[in-house]
Amino acid sequence: MIREAVFVPGVPRPTAPYSPAIKAAGFVFVSGQLPIDPSGTMPDGMSAQTRQCLDNAKAILAASGVGLDSVVKCTVFITNMDEFGLMNEAYGQYFPELPPARSTVEVSRLAKGALVEIDAIALA
Q1: For residues 41 and 27, is the Cβ–Cβ distance under 8 A?
Q2: Which contiguous run of DSSP H or E holds residue 93?
Q3: Which CATH class is domain 4-123?
């Protein structure tokens, strides 16, 4: 099986040992995306952070030749389940038709103090 790393042109490569995404076996596996924009800024609030996570995933998917409409599964990690509604509303704007399967898990903490992190699996 051939595996291909996916990187977004113009965005710095990760300094940790992971790829933003891997294309393999007809899928694109997008690593968990923190809500950090290309300039290194993290927005405030669950809604804005959810949108940034999905904008990041969208850019990675575009670099691999597909879009959000190809996503079949997401996992959402949030630090406060009381903010589920805010996350869900922002998330729903990115998947208006036939949303992917999804798991949402409350975690005690995320890297860089983020409120949310989202990974995705898409058809290649």
Answers
A1: no
A2: helix 84-94
A3: alpha beta
